[in-house]
Design goal:
Elements: E1 5-7, E2 10-14, H1 20-31, H2 38-46, E3 58-63, E4 69-80, E5 84-92, H3 101-115, E6 120-126, H4 130-138, E7 142-147, E8 157-163
Parallel strand pairs: 5-6
Antiparallel strand pairs: 1-2, 2-3, 3-4, 4-5, 6-8, 7-8
Helix pairs in contact: 1-2
Length: 172
């Protein structure tokens, strides 16, 4: 795995159990009654620590408008199938939007998925989430198909895919 990335005032690192409360609170704040349960998030955080294809949850810290540094977002990825890497969750706290945190987290989880052997990346996104769709398209994801009622009645999603870079990885 690559070392922790710093994107200017953004610090991204693998999550630890100490981050679980922040992750759970932001998940609830962002998704309400559709938020993942604490136990599911804990399992992703702790699963497969000895597994070379494991992709950690990444957390981001940044400065808010008030100048204080705080928990700003997280992303969850996992391997699925022979060559698929899935971005399962990407969340940025509203008070930290506009700092390119979503892009930084997406880059981090994408690199980790590629390092774990994924040759293509996938994700789903609610069809009304235009900012997220623009972000995903800007880094090479394309809409593959519509998933009707994925998030409930009349709440469709897009399944998006992106081929991962092929060939030898550049050196350090």
């Amino acid at each position: 795995m690559k070392p922790v990335q710093e994107h200017g005032p953004i610090d991204i690192r693998p999550a630890t159990v100490a981050d679980l409360d922040d992750i759970v609170n932001l998940e609830k704040k962002s998704f309400g009654d559709q938020a993942w349960r604490r136990e599911i998030l804990r399992r992703y955080l702790q699963s497969g620590e000895d597994n070379p294809t494991r992709v950690p949850i990444f957390v981001a810290f940044a400065k808010a408008a008030n100048g204080e540094t705080g928990f700003a977002g997280y992303t969850i990825g996992c391997r699925g199938g022979k060559d698929n890497g899935m971005v399962l969750d990407l969340v940025v706290s509203p008070e930290f939007k506009g700092q390119h945190l979503g892009r930084a987290l997406l880059e981090q989880v994408s690199e980790s998925l590629k390092d774990a052997g994924a040759s293509r990346l996938t994700l789903e996104v609610e069809s009304t989430n235009k900012p997220a769709i623009r972000l995903y398209e800007s880094v090479g994801f394309v809409k593959d198909r519509l998933l009707p009622d994925c998030y409930g009645e009349k709440r469709d999603a897009y399944w998006m895919i992106k081929p991962a870079a092929k060939g030898p990885r550049p050196g350090p």
